[in-house]
Design a protein that fits this description.
By secondary structure, this protein is of the alpha/beta class. The protein has a single domain, classed as NAD(P)-binding Rossmann-like Domain (Rossmann fold), CATH 3.40.50.720. The protein has nine helices and seven strands. It has a seven-stranded parallel beta sheet with strand order 3-2-1-4-5-6-7, sandwiched between helices. β1, α1 and β2 form a beta-alpha-beta unit.
Length: 249
């Protein structure tokens, strides 16, 4: 199946300077969307926007701060037009045991991974409602589905929270022509994996995946592009698992 083009659509991808976020931005841009690269790191945001070229815009700020989000959304609307597609991808991980997580660390991850989803979604919804259409796609995780085995309980909590947020948003926004879906990546071959996983561990992980490989960031980008397309117009409140069969439920 060839997906319909996204020409004339405007997308915002948070945390898009590198990794999965960059792959998502590349997938949407390749299908014709104008894409805002939203990231707290201005250098990576601008490098990604420059690499994409025409139709890409870097906007810099903290997705977990309301004033930054308001400003970034205004910059996108002035620079690219009304926002049709929001991809909530900004996030961080920290594989700590609950006994090693203090209140500040808990709050930090809740803000970066979950509050950011609320803030950006709330900021773009008025425009989507006025136009009678929109796509909100939020990045969850395999651990949001099954829990984290080794540490990261606050990370897993944020990713599970995104699923509840998405399902509720889908019910409440359907009457406005807005769909809300989540993507739950599994083990994806990012810089973080390449820098921190030994070849032996990598091989062991691949053997545990039915499709016998780590996912590519482009696999996640393609999943998001599908949910943003007209072919996914009747899909809302769903979670699309991108994990090579590692978790099936």
């Amino acid at each position: 199946m060839t997906l319909s083009r996204l020409d004339g659509r405007v997308a915002v991808v948070t945390g898009a300077g590198r990794g999965i976020g960059r792959a998502v931005a590349e997938a949407l841009h390749a299908r014709g969307a104008r894409v805002a690269i939203a990231d707290i790191d201005g250098d990576t945001a601008r490098r990604t926007a420059d690499a994409l070229g025409e139709g890409a815009l870097a906007v810099v700020g903290d997705a977990g701060r309301g004033e930054d989000v308001t400003r970034m959304v205004s910059e996108v609307e002035r620079g690219l037009g009304g926002i049709d597609i929001l991809v909530n991808n900004a996030g961080q991980d920290n594989a700590l045991s609950i006994l090693d997580i203090d209140e500040a660390e808990w709050d930090r991850l809740m803000t970066t991974n979950l509050k950011s989803v609320y803030l950006f979604t709330r900021a773009v919804l008025p425009g989507m409602i006025a136009r009678g259409r929109g796509r909100v796609i939020s990045m969850s995780s395999l651990v949001g589905r099954q829990g984290a085995i080794n540490g990261g309980i606050h990370y897993a909590t944020t990713k599970a929270g995104i699923l509840g947020f998405t399902r509720t948003l889908a019910r409440q926004m359907a009457k406005h022509g807005i769909t809300a879906n989540a993507v739950a990546p599994g083990l994806i071959d990012t810089d973080l994996i390449r820098e921190n996983v030994t070849p032996e561990t990598r091989e062991r992980l691949q053997q545990a995946i039915p499709l016998a490989r780590l996912g590519a960031t482009a696999d996640v980008g393609s999943a998001v592009a599908f949910l943003a397309s007209d072919e996914a117009a009747y899909i809302t409140g769903a979670t699309l698992d991108v994990n090579g069969g590692f978790w099936i439920g």
